[in-house]
Specification:
Helix content: over 70%
Number of strands: 2
Strand content: under 5%
Shape: globular
Radius of gyration: 23 Å
Mean pLDDT: 82
Structural class: mainly alpha
Number of helices: 19
Strand order of the largest sheet: 1-2
Low-confidence stretches: none
């Protein structure tokens, strides 16, 4: 067997192979406290992540989809892996800025790189055993990173709050993911015991899909995803942890913990499509009600608090509610499968484009002021027009401003309604038109209201950015902050203009391909 034939066997894990040099070197020098070695390991880690991102794209274009007994790698998986690598490239910057001078910095990098490696295996997993094992390891990796980041080992105390109290909140927070893992194990066990199936594809192709035990297992799996994603923002432990933890922890939760739950659901999406197509009326009612509670609670929470971390977290939670609403809208037959999946992926990348630069600037100000009060950013756009303008554009994009990347994601949750608002036909089989459409209209109204609420919360931040400050205090941001903010601002505008050209029928794709014709 030739070397090329051997290499073909690791497809689609070339990106994982690109991470291995950094992991091996990090392990070899893991106990070192030498500054030069830290810089060397950091440089190798960054280059490895860049190489992994490149190979993820290049190998998929070169070799196409991949599938075997344990793994499958299609366009959706390639996009998810690309998200993780791009997020990792940004997260390693946060980790470095906050932890470079700690004695255990290289150990933090080891945990981070291994967790990213496991993420790719989780994304590609299609067999129940592979999904469960990789998900457990991924959750354990995220937990370990968060724990080490909030440890005082090898450095001065992180803040005035006891390390014991912070770690207690970490444990309470991750009890939810442990509960989700238990539900996941139970669901897989029931499905395997009732049918001997080992993948979701086998379930959909089988005549046993309507068996009671099989349905029970599937319901438990969806409960696992729901508890993992939508209960954690409501925990008191999460709110307390958010206030007390090392700032990088927040980004780890947002861009590793949260996407893991989304990716787990996307593995279940075809099963969800089947269930929604056969019982869409009652399912969509439940999902729309759950989305309403999540959206209202999150938006009201953001309005009431003055903590920037909590405001961003509540807005993040509202975005979770929008994803939950998308599930109900599919059940209401107002969006199709392609739009459904596109919306999920688009919102993930919108979070990356919006939260990373905003959090970078706000975290810098928090460190200077010693608190995360929203009053600290008063007049920032007046005193620092470059960064202030960049933040305003990025925040407006997240709110859905016309001509930006955020508009493309927001309009696609509302646009499908416009075609049938005047239709008298029921969206549900066997249900009177008046009753069926009432719930569809409720979803439409909820989407509009949630969008308006989000706009209000974003407008609140923007107004404080541009209002006259109480003093003329200015912040000396490093040059890298200017470059970082400008790059993300240009990306939001570039994608927004590209999307508008497509919406209005132009055949000029400034991104090189059609954004809306990507078929997952």
């Amino acid at each position: 067997m030739t070397v090329l034939e051997q290499l073909d066997k690791i497809c689609p894990f070339y990106s994982c192979a690109a991470l291995m040099p950094a992991i091996i070197l990090s392990v070899f020098f893991g106990l070192s406290k030498n500054k030069g070695l830290k810089v060397f390991i950091l440089a190798v880690s960054v280059l490895s992540i860049i190489a992994a991102l490149f190979f993820n794209i290049y190998i998929f274009i070169l070799k196409g989809a991949f599938s075997d007994y344990l793994f499958s790698y299609n366009l959706l998986e390639a996009v998810q892996a690309g998200f993780i690598f791009f997020a990792a490239l940004n997260l390693i910057i946060f980790i470095t800025v906050g932890n470079f001078y700690r004695d255990n910095f290289i150990q933090i990098l080891i945990l981070f790189l291994i967790t990213i490696l496991i993420s790719v295996f989780f994304i590609a997993s299609s067999n129940f055993i592979a999904i469960f094992v990789s998900f457990v390891l991924l959750s354990a990796g995220i937990f370990q990173i968060v724990t080490v980041l909030n440890s005082n080992t090898g450095t001065r105390q992180i803040n005035s709050i006891s390390e014991y109290i912070v770690k207690n909140d970490i444990l309470r927070f991750f009890l939810v993911s442990a509960f989700s893992i238990l539900l996941l194990f139970t669901g897989f066990s029931i499905i395997f015991g009732a049918s001997d199936f080992k993948s979701f594809l086998q379930i959909l192709e089988s005549e046993k899909i309507n068996a009671t035990l099989l349905k029970t297992g599937i319901i438990i799996l969806f409960a696992a995803v729901f508890s993992y994603l939508f209960l954690f923002p409501l925990q008191g432990a999460y709110i307390r942890l958010l206030k007390k933890c090392e700032p990088t922890t927040t980004c780890i939760l947002w861009f590793l913990y949260f996407p893991a739950g989304i990716f787990l659901f996307l593995k279940l999406r075809n099963v969800f499509f089947y269930i929604a197509d056969n019982s869409s009326f009652y399912l969509s009612i439940s999902l729309i009600v759950a989305a309403a509670l999540t959206l209202i609670g999150a938006n009201l929470g953001a309005i009431k608090t003055t903590s920037m971390r909590r405001i961003l977290s509540f807005i993040f939670m509202a975005n979770l509610g929008m994803l939950l609403l998308a599930l109900g809208l599919y059940g209401a037959k107002t969006i199709d499968r392609q739009t459904f999946t596109w919306f999920f992926i688009a919102n993930l990348f919108l979070l990356l484009l919006s939260y990373l630069p905003v959090f970078t600037v706000f975290n810098f100000i928090e460190k200077k002021e010693g608190s995360d009060s929203i009053d600290n950013i008063a007049g920032l756009a007046r005193n620092n027009k470059t960064i202030g303008t960049a933040l305003i554009i990025i925040l407006a994009s997240f709110a859905g401003m016309f001509g930006t990347a955020g508009y493309l994601a927001r309009i696609h949750i509302i646009k499908p309604f416009l075609g049938f608002l005047t239709s008298g036909n029921s969206l549900y089989e066997g249900v009177p038109a008046e009753a069926g459409n009432a719930f569809a209209y409720a979803g439409f109204a909820l989407a509009l209201i949630s969008w308006a609420f989000l706009a209000v919360n974003i407008a609140r931040i923007i107004i404080i950015l541009v209002k006259k400050p109480h003093n003329n205090k200015t912040y000396a941001f490093p040059k890298s902050y200017y470059i970082y903010s400008i790059i993300y601002t240009l990306a939001a505008l570039w994608i927004g203009v590209a999307g508008l050209l497509e919406i209005y029928g132009s055949d000029i794709y400034i991104t090189g391909y059609s954004l809306f014709n990507i078929s997952f």
